[in-house]
């Protein structure tokens, strides 16, 4: 892939989020250094999506700050932030008229003036991003009619077309088949972007993340390398499962097997 924004340092500084009188995220601090891939893990309702929403400014922290290269994201003008940070969210665009191409082309918006159409360079970037996700043949298909996995790949392509150095991804491997899961995470690594990724699959987190950050009930319960964090004790405490963790003989990566009751 061609040039993109420089990887940034993305940092949550004691971020709390309170909604409807509930503290959903409680003083969470996390740093993703340039080009680091940080996995955000934890059970359903732990606050992963809520924390990530503060990163791309869809939510305002009740206290604390989110910093990109030291700049409070709330103080960076929207277009400028969108050139530095792209997000792949779980909520897909709801516009039924859009083709997959149109959805990916939205990634070019931060580089345009009002009403400026796509130029040849934009088209090339959009088609390259679709091709990178093996979605070139979906370009003209109505986004609305794609399968869950196809939609997910188109949304990742949109973030790619945004050409940012920093990515926030909320369960990007959901709906993807095995190979596309691996391809998506490999792609993030190959881009050299700074990334914070909410992931459910702990084996994927162990294999592709430099660090993992565990949330439970809105609080940080552990953070460190996958080998430091993904221990049977932690998995028992957070997920209430009996798990065995071994080092994979060929990859050296921690391998988690959940044992039946
Ligand atoms: P995760 O992504 O880790 O599964 P979420 O961040 O989506 O968790 O949700 C964390 C908690 O916040 C959940 O209990 C959810 O029900 C609650 N929640 C999410 N959005 C709101 C909201 N707008 N108002 C009140 N509670 C919310
Ligand atoms: Mg979530």
Summarize the structure.
The protein has 261 residues and is of the alpha/beta class. It is 30% helix and 27% strand. The model has no long low-confidence stretch (mean pLDDT 94).
Chain-averaged pLDDT:
94
Helix content: 25-40%
Tertiary shape: globular
Radius of gyration: 18 Å
Counted beta strands: 12
Main sheet: strands, sense, barrel: 6 strands, mixed
Structural class: alpha/beta
Number of helices: 9
What does this structure look like?
With 261 residues, this protein is α/β, with parallel strands linked by helices. The protein is 30% helix and 27% strand. It is built from nine helices and twelve strands. It has helices at 48-55, 78-82, 100-105, 120-132, 148-161, 178-191, 202-208, 226-229, 232-239; strands at residues 10-19, 22-32, 37-41, 63-68, 71-72, 85-88, 166-170, 194-198, 211-216, 219-224, 243-247, 254-258. A six-stranded mixed β-sheet has the order 6-7-8-3-9-10, sandwiched between helices. Strands 2-1-4-5 form a four-stranded antiparallel β-sheet, covered by helices on one side. A two-stranded antiparallel sheet has the order 11-12. Strand 7 (166-170), helix 6 and strand 8 form a beta-alpha-beta unit. Helix 4 crosses helix 5. The radius of gyration is 18 Å and the shape is globular. The structure holds adenosine-5'-diphosphate and magnesium ion. Magnesium ion binds at residues 48-49, 170, 198. Magnesium ion (MG) binds at residues 48-49, 170, 198.
């Amino acid at each position: 892939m061609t040039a993109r924004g420089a990887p940034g340092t993305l940092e949550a500084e004691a971020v709390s989020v309170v909604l409807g009188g509930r503290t959903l995220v409680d003083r969470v601090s996390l740093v993703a250094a340039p080009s680091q891939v940080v996995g955000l893990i934890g059970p359903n309702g732990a606050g992963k999506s809520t924390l990530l929403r503060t990163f791309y400014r869809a939510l305002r922290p009740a206290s604390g700050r989110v910093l990109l290269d030291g700049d409070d994201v709330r103080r960076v003008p929207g277009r400028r932030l969108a050139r530095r940070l792209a997000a792949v969210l779980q909520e897909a665009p709801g516009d039924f008229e859009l083709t997959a191409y149109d959805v990916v082309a939205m990634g070019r918006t931060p580089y345009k003036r009002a009403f400026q159409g796509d130029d040849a360079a934009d088209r090339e970037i959009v088609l390259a991003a679709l091709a990178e996700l093996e979605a070139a043949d979906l370009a003209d298909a109505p986004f609305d009619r794609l399968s869950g996995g196809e939609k997910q790949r188109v949304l990742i392509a949109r973030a790619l077309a945004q050409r940012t150095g920093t990515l926030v991804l909320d369960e990007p491997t959901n709906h993807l088949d095995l190979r596309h899961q691996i391809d998506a995470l490999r792609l993030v690594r190959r881009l050299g972007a700074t990334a914070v990724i909410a992931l459910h699959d702990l084996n994927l987190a162990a294999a592709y993340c430099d660090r993992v950050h565990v949330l439970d009930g809105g609080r940080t319960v552990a953070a460190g390398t996958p080998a430091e964090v993904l221990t049977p004790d932690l998995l028992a405490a957070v997920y209430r499962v009996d798990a065995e963790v071994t080092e994979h003989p060929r990859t050296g990566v921690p391998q988690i097997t959940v044992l039946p009751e």
